Amino acid sequence: MVKKAQIKQEVQVVGFYLGNDEYAITIAKVREIQSMTEIRKVPKAPKFVEGVINLRGRILPIIDLRKRFELPPAVDPAQAKILIVEFNRNHVGLVVDNVSEVIRLYSDQIEKTPDIFSLSIDSRYISGVAKLDDRLIILLDVEKLLSFEEQNALAGFKS
User: Fold this and answer.
1) Is residue 4 part of a domain?
2) How many helices and strands (H and E) does the chain possess?
3) In terms of Cα–Cα distance, which of 86, 91, 72, 94 is closest to 23?
4) How would you classify residue 51: left for phi > 0, otherwise alpha for psi between -120 and 50, otherwise beta?
5) pTM to 2 decimals?
6) What CATH number has the domain bearing residue 30?
7) For the chain, how many structural domains are there in total?
8) Residue 109 sits in which domain range?
């Protein structure tokens, strides 16, 4: 009997940092990367919402991933970037400490989320963990970063 070779599927992701931890979001969801800009506060917004920015005439809500994951504030906020991502046909900015690179991963490098992550970051946001040489990259599921109610609340911030 001849075994069929398992086809390795390529996945491209945009890597970024929150502290010393490396995260990634599938490149299909990332629209652009912006340098940090002035973010206007929005009264009564959820704690993790930094505010809104005007991006070429579009008002986008900005989410601070450190606050979303209940992490301490960044040591060097001057390095911060805003990832403009799309989910559920909406655009949102995600504040991250820094962006690393576009990373090519293969399906055999990605494992399901280990139980240990439920202790630090809510594991529902994580779609898996990739092992790349000596790096561990936490893969985030953008679609699950916000609950349905939170998405509806943010929809009121955009134009």
Assistant:
1) no
2) 2, 11
3) 94
4) left
5) 0.84
6) 2.40.50.180
7) 1
8) 10-155
